């Protein structure tokens, strides 16, 4: 049985050794005595799929939204600081 780290190392080795020499991943797995189907399943399970999207409309950024967002963010920060009883750090936290 191959662990996550074993398959991760194999993939890194493939990118460093196999890709530059033009070896397919199937051939690389075979030469390293790793069943390709296990590698393929690990790869599918651990890699996030990238889905292309097209942005049609960008919402306008208005000043009213910014003010309400910053007010809300600062209120949350004050609440967190009050919860942890750190009033002396409040001015530092809000300016960050």
- The residue-averaged pLDDT reads 79
Assess the beta-strand content as a share of residues: under 5%
Give the H and E element order: HHHHH
How much helix, percentage-wise, in residues?
55-70%
Number of strands: 0
- Span of the ends, CA to CA: 49 Å
Which segments are poorly predicted (pLDDT under 50) over 5 or more consecutive residues? 89-93
Question: Can you offer a commentary on this structure?
Answer:
This protein is mostly helical and 96 residues long. It folds into 2 domains: 4-46; 63-95. The chain is 66% helix and 0% strand. The chain is built from 5 helices and no strands. The protein has helices at residues 4-21, 25-31, 36-46, 63-83, 90-95.
Give a brief description.
This protein is mostly helical and 96 residues long.
Task: Please give the structural blueprint.
Blueprint: H1 4-21, H2 25-31, H3 36-46, H4 63-83, H5 90-95
Task: Give the key terms.
96 residues, 2 domains
